[in-house]
Prior knowledge:
- By secondary structure, the protein is an alpha/beta fold.
- It has helices at 2-25, 29-48, 55-64, 68-81, 89-107, 109-133, 170-185, 213-223, 240-254, 267-279, 313-335, and strands at 144-148, 192-196, 231-234, 260-266, 283-289.
- Strands 3-2-1-4-5 form a 5-stranded parallel sheet, sandwiched between helices.
- The longest helix has 25 residues, at 109-133.
Amino acid sequence: MFLILTRILLWILVGAIVYLALTQWLSDKWKAWLGTFVIVFIAVASFYNPNYWCVPYLWEIIAFFLKPLGISLTLIAVVLSKIDDECKKKRGKSLLIVAFSILILCSIPILAYQLAAVTEGEVIRLIRERAEIVKHPISKTADAIVLIGQGTTEANLPYRPQIQLTDSADRITYTAQIYHQQTQARNGHPPFVIVSAGPRRNIKQLESNPEIEAEDIRELLLLMGVPPSQIILETEGENLRTIALEVKEILQDLGIASEPIMLVTSALQMRRTALTFTGVELNVISRPTDFYTIQPDAEPGLQLTVINFIPSAKALALTTRVVEEYYASIYYFLRGWTTPIVL
C-alpha cells in the first residue's frame, strides 16, 4: 500500500512539474493544460505498451527537455521569446542565468565525477549491506553469467574489418574473466554465459537479416576462450524488464532458474538492473563494471588538478548519463518493476 501511494504521489508531482514548466513557456494556460495532457497521455500509453515502436522515440523527445542541455536550451528559448517585452526582460535575465549555471555546473569534471561516484558507490554499499544482512558471504559461484551487452560493440560497416568496441566493452572482457574464474571455482564445471543484445538500434537493416549485436559479442567471447556450447544468446528483450523475463525463461529451460546467477553490466545501471532481475524472482549476484569513477576508499585516489575544474563536453556527457539513469530508475519504480530493497 505504501509503494502504491508513493507511486501516485510521484505521478502527481511529475504532472505538476510538467504543468509549471509549460506555463513558464506558453503564454496561454489552455496551451499549458493541453501540453500537460499530451505528455501525460504519452506516459500512460508507454506504460500500457512500452514496447510499441513509437514509444522510445517519443520518450527520447520528452526526456531531452529534462536533461541538462535540454533544460538550458529551453530556458534560453524562453528568454529569446521575451526579449522584445520590456516588462519581461528582467525575468528573462534570471532564466538566462539559470540556464548558464546549469550548463557550467554540469560541465565541470569534478562535479560530474562526484555525481557519478555517488551512483556507483551506492552499488558497492548495497552489496556490502546485503552481505551483512544475510550474515554470511554471498555465494561465490553461479550456474550462469548474464551479460547485458547492448551497446558494447559498434555496427559492422564495410570499412571496418574488425569488431569495433565502445567505451562500455569491458563488460565483455569482465564476463570472460568471470567465466574462467567460475570454471575453476566449480572444479571444472563451467557456467553458462547468457548474452543479452538484440538488433542494433538506429541502424537501417534488412528485416530478413537484421544485424544482431549478441552475435558479435559471441565471437569476442569465443576468442577469449569461452566455448560455444556454453554461450546462449538472448536477442528478444527490448528493455531491462523484458530482458529479465527472457533470461528467466532460458534459465527455466536449463533447469537452473532457482540457482544464483552473476549479472554483469555497468556500475551506473547495476542497481536498477539487479532490482529488475530480482523483481522476476531471480537470484542475482551483482558484478558491476564500467566504472567511471574511483571509489572514495580506493587507493590511489583521484588527483585534483586545474583541469578537473575546467568545463568540458565529456563531463557534460557523464552528468547526462547519471541524470538519465535517475529518470530511468523513477520510471521503473512507477511501473512497479523495481522496489527500494537491498540487493
